[in-house]
Amino acid sequence: MDQDMINPADLAYQIYQDRKHEAEIWHQEQKNIIDEATSEKKEEILKEYKETYETAKDKILRRIFTQFSQLMKDHVHTITEYATRNEEVSKLFVYLVENSDRYKSKVPKVTINSKTTPFDEDNGLIMSLLRESGETPEKMTIWSDGTLFHNGKFYSAKDNIKLVNKKGEIKPMKIILITKTQLVAETTVEKLIITPQDMLMERYNIL
């Protein structure tokens, strides 16, 4: 078709559409540039924040573990007795013992999957510190709500144990409750309630 025959209105509309399309392309390019710059700045800020956070966290942990280690050296018996009062405190205590030891040595520990209690997983340090303070862990019994420390081992609810009575009869049982005044254990056919007096008089003992 001859260029002279094009309707001016159609030509104007075509020019408008072309310019609109060019403007959209330019706008998208500018948006991409801004997004890229914003993303880079965001990553830069996040990296800087993370480094600052990790540095602050490292200082705080160092201070906490250093103070905890010193407390364990000075008051190990008191802290250990307090730590056995309930499950939450016991977990926190084990966390501090494990991580303060790792923090000082910088040597990662090997994690062994087992069904032992939380304290049994890493009580070597606790036993060592008790002996250094003049205590004999293998002859100690501490009753508390949630945990029993007896003859160098920690026991808590859901632990499987072997009880022996004065007659020498051995009964495999499962602990369902420990308080300051009793240990409740059961099998599928019976339930036993053992008191500190029972342990003291050796009516029952845990193998």
From TrEMBL:
Stated name of the protein: Uncharacterized protein
Species: Tritrichomonas foetus
